[in-house]
Structures are given as structure tokens and as C-alpha cells.
Amino acid sequence: MNLLARIKADDVGFLSFIDDDEVKETVNGGLFVSLRRTENDLWLIPEELRSVNSTLYVECEERQKNGVSRVVCGLSGKPLKANPLPAFGAVRGGVQGDFFIPLSVVAVECAAQSDVVSIVLLRAVREGTCACIMETVIWEGEGNLLPRAFSKFSSAVLAALKKSGCTNCSHVHFQSG
């Protein structure tokens, strides 16, 4: 996971400090800038970014790595549109899809050979000159016993279960057209 700041096109001209390795992509009149991560799992917000109108985005991957499969969905449980890989730079091992989501996203994770899933809320939080990703497990249990209160995530849970059984997975299991 990573944190990005999206700057409106009108403000991009003021950001001469941005190095090419920090610029992620220009999309729909805005520029995505990768924030620098510290060893304390905080991301630094450069002073120049604090003076312009920017929105934090969570960069989250659909992946199958170390025996755990993850799919990504919106807060409503609906699939999101993946960015083409490699989104920027080299493809990271085990990553099949890359998503940029403003402020909050949900990840559904499932261990290989298991029906136990975790539904995790990932939320970008700005704290002065830094930002972090707050992770909150909102439900954990057997995927086929999903409570009614979490039924909006049922398609994502099924996709995570399917992905966990996908040998040498190389494709995205849950995304919008």
C-alpha cells in the first residue's frame, strides 16, 4: 500500500519541487504524487503540497502473496476499476491489480486453503505534516457465514475466496469494466 496526493490541474504549475520519481500519473486534470514513506509507516506531506488543494488517495493492490489473497472494493462493496500494470515502475511480486481510491477503501483478504476472510477498512488520515493509513478489521469469519450487516461485501468475499484457490494467479478477480 502507498499514499498518494492528487493535485488539481490548476495547482500543478506551482509544484516545481516534484521529481519525476514522485509523479505517478496525470488523470482527468489532476496529478498524482507519491508521498515519501518513513520507517514508522507514516507518509510525509511536503510543505509545497500543504499549500495547495490536494486529496489523499490510497494506492491498494489486488494481490496473491505469502499465502494470502486480497481483492479491493469500494465502501459500498462494489468493484473498482484497476489501473493497468505496471501502474508505475516495476511490477511488484504477487500484485495483479493496482487501484487508486480517494480517502478510504475496503480490502477483503483470505488465506490459501481457508474459508476465513477478513474485511478490512483502509482509511487515509492526515495528521499535520504526515499522513497514515488506518487499518480496521470490520469483520472476520467464515466467508459462507457473512452476517446480513456485511452482505454488501458478499461479491468481494466470493472473489477473495476464489482468488485464494487460483494457482499462480496472474489476473484481477474483482474489478469493474
What does this structure look like?
The chain has 177 residues and is mainly β. The protein has one domain. 11% of the residues lie in helices and 45% in strands. Strands 1, 2, 3, 4, 5, 6, 7, 8, 9, 10 and 11 form an 11-stranded antiparallel sheet that branches. The longest helix has 11 residues, at 154-164. The relative contact order is 0.19. The model has no long low-confidence stretch (mean pLDDT 83).
Provide tags for this entry.
mainly beta, 11% helix, 11 strands, 177 residues, elongated, 11-stranded antiparallel β-sheet
What are the SSEs and their pairings?
Elements: E1 2-8, H1 9-12, E2 23-27, E3 30-34, E4 36-37, E5 43-44, H2 47-50, E6 54-65, E7 68-73, E8 95-102, E9 104-111, E10 116-127, E11 130-142, H3 154-164
Antiparallel strand pairs: 1-3, 1-6, 2-3, 4-5, 5-11, 6-7, 6-8, 7-9, 9-10, 10-11
Q: Which stretches of 5+ consecutive residues score pLDDT under 50?
A: none
Q: Which oligomerization state do the chains in this entry correspond to?
A: single chain
- Give the rounded overall mean pLDDT: 83
Specify Rg, calculated over alpha carbons: 17 Å
Distance between the termini: 23 Å
H-E order? EHEEEEHEEEEEEH
Number of strands: 11
* Helical stretch tally: 3
Largest sheet: 11 strands, antiparallel
Q: Helix amount, in percent?
A: 10-25%
Shape: elongated
Count of the separate structural domains: 1
Structural class label: mainly beta
> In percent, how much strand structure appears in the residues?
over 45%
